[in-house]
Amino acid sequence: MAGSVQDAALKDALAQAAAEIDHTLDHIMPPAEGPEAPLLAAMRYAVIGGGKRMRGFLVLEGARQFNASRQAALRVAAAIEMLHAYSLVHDDLPAMDDDDLRRGKPTVHKAFDEATAIIAGDALQTLAFGTLADEDTHPDPAVRVELVRCLARAAGARGMCGGQMLDMLAEQAGEPLDEAAVGRLQLLKTGRLIEFSAEAGAILGKAPMSQRLSLAAYGRDVGAAFQIADDLLDATASAEETGKRTGKDAEAGKATLVGLLGIERARLQAERLVAQAGQHLDSFGERADLLRDLAAYTIERKS
């Protein structure tokens, strides 16, 4: 019974967060009108009304640990979701993963065209940083600068973009990566942005460095578990269940921990990461229960 109550509480909290984040995105993003309407429509199509908003939820729950402004946290969550959406738009392009389906609907380059998808991704990225830099996000310019700095690090050549490059190079080389190399690739490509999402609430709340580092470590482990879960879904679930094409990693010959370890060992590794993530939250007490539940949810989800 306790488990079902916890699951329901997390489900309700995720749904509320997603609705609030979408409302914030709708407010931040310009309406699709004027000569630039096709670009603005593609931006909105890419980011509003889709996805689990897990990264945004991490921001909101991290900020709640320090009683930081909910409105400020929503703007940071929206910025991260815009940047995440840009990465998906570009990943789906024919030059990258060449996907036709994302979140149960046609990818941006299919719904519009390739050129519009590229520009929409670029515009989402710049709007994300502009949102963090805006004084409406936080009155303290030092906090805004730190948010911009950390997101740039998480998304750049030593983060998400670097991980994507490693993924492409491995695919081009046609040689299997070992477990350590796959772990680093996934840490950069997926983990850095999730790590920042967990840490961002502490930055907003001007938290002590020890607690900020604890949330970052939690996010790092959750990110690693999330990627393993994604690889497991790609290997075992259907496109109808996930809302996107599955089986593509094996088809492309991509190295994943699931491919290296096998399904059962990969699941065990994800469970260990979830347990470890929870340990990083010990100093926050019961207030962080939703974060603990979210860590477990990352490997139990079906999409």
TrEMBL record:
Cofactor: Mg(2+)
GO CC list: cytoplasm
Tree of life domain: Bacteria
Keywords: Isoprene biosynthesis, Magnesium, Metal-binding, Transferase
SUPFAM superfamilies: Terpenoid synthases (SSF48576)
InterPro entries: Isoprenoid_synthase_dom_sf, Polyprenyl_synt, Polyprenyl_synt_CS, Prenyl_diphosphate_synthase
One Pfam family it belongs to: polyprenyl_synt
Alphabetized GO MF terms: metal ion binding; prenyltransferase activity
GO BP annotations listed: terpenoid biosynthetic process
Family (UniProt): Belongs to the FPP/GGPP synthase family.
The name this protein goes by in its record: Farnesyl diphosphate synthase
